[in-house]
Amino acid sequence: MATPTMDKVEAEAAASSDLITVTFRIRRFNPEISEHAVWEDFELEIDPKERVLDGLHKIKWDLDGTLTFRRSCAHGICGSDAMRINGKNRLACKTLIKDINPEKPITVEAIKGLTVLKDLVVDMEPFFQAYRDVMPFLITKGNEPTRERRQSAEDRERFDDTTKCILCAACTTSCPVFWNDGQYFGPAAIVNAHRFIFDSRDEAGEQRLEILNDKDGVWRCRTTFNCTDACPRGIEVTKAIQEVKRALITRRY
Ligand code: SF4
Ligand code: FES
């Protein structure tokens, strides 16, 4: 015998019984109103299986349309919604409410070390400038080959981890060296340099190593592992930085 399906009213009642009341404590900043940031609390009903991004949407759509934050894909791909949630850099779209102790207020603030423009939105330009500075594209000499550039599976594996970067800046903005001196290239730029330095098809490894041999380059890293902990893609960021340091010493890569 077929199992009777729940009617709409029952389904809604079941869904609403899953809701819990959560406080979002958000660090607000609006330079048109004040030069100081303030914490503001929002209380909302939410399913704990939803994500912090869903909570931010509910606040923006139902409670305060002025709340400002970036997001695009909502699925951990575009890297635009890195923020500091309960004191740790995370992607709002990959963070479930139930995983971050919703019994207490959930704090949400902008990532650190970059200028806050409004609420949770920072000026990403210094971050992207460091990325551009390491020349994150394949550089080769000589004539274009008539067929694709071949590479063995082992050679491809050498830099597989660092191809996963989505440029969310969670690593760079969790780094105490970057907080103290925004001139440091930062983990994300080094990860993206690593991706090409260790690519057997690329011929500009020496140039990239020299760029990172700068006073603001890899030697500023203090191996605190904050970057590795923060990376939502699970990239071994500190290991990649160590490999670039080793390549600088041995000139082997
Ligand atoms: S290395 Fe990880 S944390 Fe850093 S920018 Fe790339 S994806 Fe984000
Ligand atoms: S919105 Fe794209 S990674 Fe979160």
Topology:
Elements: H1 8-17, E1 20-28, E2 38-46, H2 52-63, E3 82-85, E4 88-91, E5 106-109, E6 116-118, E7 121-122, H3 125-133, H4 153-157, H5 176-180, H6 187-197, H7 205-212, H8 226-230, H9 237-250
Parallel strand pairs: 1-5
Antiparallel strand pairs: 1-2, 3-4, 3-5, 6-7
Compute the gyration radius: what is it?
22 Å
How many domains, as an integer?
Answer: 2
Q: What's the average pLDDT? A: 94
SS class: alpha+beta
Distance between the termini: 66 Å
**How much helicity do the residues have?**
25-40%
Helix tally equals 9
Pathway: Carbohydrate metabolism; tricarboxylic acid cycle
Domain 2Fe-2S ferredoxin-type: 20-114
Pfam families: Fer2_3, Fer4_10
Domain 4Fe-4S ferredoxin-type: 155-177
List keywords for this structure.
binds FE2/S2 (inorganic) cluster, Ubiquitin-like (UB roll), two-stranded antiparallel sheet, 31% helix, 7 strands, alpha+beta, Fumarate Reductase Iron-sulfur Protein, Chain B, domain 2, single chain, five-stranded mixed β-sheet, elongated, binds iron/sulfur cluster, 253 residues, 2 domains
What does this structure look like?
The chain has helices at 8-17, 52-63, 125-133, 153-157, 176-180, 187-197, 205-212, 226-230, 237-250, and strands spanning 20-28, 38-46, 82-85, 88-91, 106-109, 116-118, 121-122. The longest helix has 14 residues, at 237-250. The strands form 2 sheets. A 5-stranded mixed β-sheet has the order 2-1-5-3-4, with helices on one face. A two-stranded antiparallel ribbon has the order 6-7. The model has no long low-confidence stretch (mean pLDDT 94). It is built from 9 helices and 7 strands. Strand 3 and strand 4 (88-91) form a beta hairpin. It has 2 domains: 8-122, Beta-grasp domain (Ubiquitin-like (UB roll), Roll); 125-250, Orthogonal Bundle (Fumarate Reductase Iron-sulfur Protein, Chain B, domain 2), CATH 1.10.1060.10. It is elongated and about 65 Å long. The structure holds iron/sulfur cluster (SF4) and FE2/S2 (inorganic) cluster. Iron/sulfur cluster is lined by residues 79, 165-171, 187-188, 191, 230-231, 233, 235, 237.
